[in-house]
Amino acid sequence: MKFKSLLVVLFIIFYSKTSLSNENIIVYIDLNKIMNNSIAGKSITSQLEKNHKKNISKLKKTEDELKKEESEIISQKNILTKEEYEKKIIDLRDKAKEFRKQRNENINNLNNQRLQATAKIINLVKPILSEYSEINSISIIIDKKNVIIGKTNLDITDDILKIVDEKIGKINLD
Fold first, then answer.
1. d(CA 106, CA 112)
2. Quick count: other Cβ atoms within 10 Å of Cβ 84?
């Protein structure tokens, strides 16, 4: 009788161990690392920086022109009539207002480009993750920023980074 109960206990333990090995696998990935270190992410970052520098250059030129015009108006204050002076001041304020509006539009455009680029990379990475999870029998892939504690062997970022670099390469924003 003891032998049968021992066999039943061993069977249950063995069966539970094998069923645990078929458990759902949960891994995590650092999407920020993918965005910053992949060829696609680096190409997008460089394109965004290039656009940003170009916008800053244009805005700096306009700002310098406005400062020069302001200096000229101030230097002509005693020469001009009150009406002419006020008209030039109002004109300068309108130009400054337009400058601020243009600067805000550039900032918004750059932010929109950044969001679209991020979405583009994520949409290209999703099928790669799907295929990787199917091949490796992974049930859930979680973003690393949502993981409090996890074993390093559950981090698949470097594997995915290699695959992304092979399959995607550079991405053009335009």
1. 10
2. 12
Supply 136's token pair.
Answer: 């490796």
Domain containing residue 98: CATH number = 3.30.910.20
DSSP code at position 148: S
- The predicted model scores a pTM of 0.69
- How far, in Å, CA of 99 to CA of 55, rounded? 12
Handedness of CA 150, 152, 155, 157 (dihedral sign): positive
List, for residues 67-88, the tens digit of each pLDDT value.
998 898 888 888 888 888 889 8
- Three-state DSSP class for 120? helix
Three-state DSSP state, 60: helix
Tokens of 66: 């406005």
DSSP, collapsed to helix, strand or coil, labels residue 131 as helix
Residue at 174 is within a domain: no
